[in-house]
Design goal:
This protein has about 230 residues and is of the alpha+beta class. The protein contains 5 helices and 5 strands, in the order H-H-E-E-E-E-H-H-E-H. The protein has a 3-stranded antiparallel β-sheet, with helices on one face. Strands 2-3 form a two-stranded antiparallel sheet.
Length: about 230
């Protein structure tokens, strides 16, 4: 009976969320570029809410479902350095060794449905979703102002500046998650001839994205100041 509550929560959330999403984008012409971007960000925000429902289900599982009836599997990527011998990939049609492997990237799947682990996932997931929700909430008014053709406002400058900071915070949180999961997995893996390390994360791309958004905030700020100066002069 307890397990039947989970699909009921999902069904009610989908119906209510879909209705709210349609009501929110109804005044917007989604066939335009700015309207489509705005609708996409709104949809992303409702997907964040849907992920929040998943976290509620995790907590419900911890409280009401016996551990023997739980089932949760998850994966994590590693760089696998071959520290003993190199391996080769052989073409089957010619029997020629084309590539010598010294390292590969693999995904390890593991099952763990213990209460402490589920609570840890719920806490980290909640923190990530809160920050992502804040980022989307800063993006929505900016895109809406672009749709209405009034981009140079002080609010847009503030929203984009805060969004650039949130992008960096989200990346650092994701990096901390990857490090934590790597430390969690490595003691539980038995390997022969392999040295396991974490997959390299693209820090420069996150820094570049945050920088572009910050520059955009300065464009909005300067545009707003020029607009104010022009109106004052007139």
């Amino acid at each position: 009976m307890n397990l039947l509550v989970i699909p009921l929560i999902i069904l009610v959330s989908l119906i209510y969320g879909g209705w709210r999403f349609i009501q929110e984008i109804k005044p917007i012409k989604v066939m335009s570029i700015h309207g489509a971007l705005f609708a996409f960000v709104v949809l992303s925000r409702y997907l964040v809410y849907a992920c929040g429902v998943v976290i509620v289900i995790l907590l419900y599982t911890v409280i009401f479902v016996p551990e023997s009836n739980r089932s949760l599997s998850f994966g994590h990527k590693f760089n696998l350095e071959l520290d003993e011998d190199s391996y080769t990939i052989v073409r089957t049609d010619t029997n020629e060794a084309d590539i010598t492997l010294q390292s590969v990237t693999g995904t390890v799947d593991m099952a763990d449905a213990s209460g402490p682990f589920l609570i840890m996932i719920a806490v980290l997931g909640t923190l990530f979703l809160v920050l992502l929700h804040q980022l989307l909430c800063h993006a929505e008014p900016v895109l809406l102002s672009l749709y209405r053709r009034v981009p140079f406002t002080r609010n847009n400058a503030d929203h984009t500046r805060r969004a650039s900071m949130l992008i960096l915070v989200l990346w650092f949180l994701y990096y901390a998650y990857m490090v934590g999961m790597t430390l969690f997995f490595i003691p539980r893996l038995e390997t022969t001839g392999l040295e396991i390390s974490m997959v390299e994360l693209p820090f420069l791309s996150a820094l570049f994205t945050a920088g572009i958004v910050f520059v955009l905030s300065e464009v909005f700020r300067v545009g707003f100041e020029l607009k104010e100066e022009q109106e004052f002069t007139v």
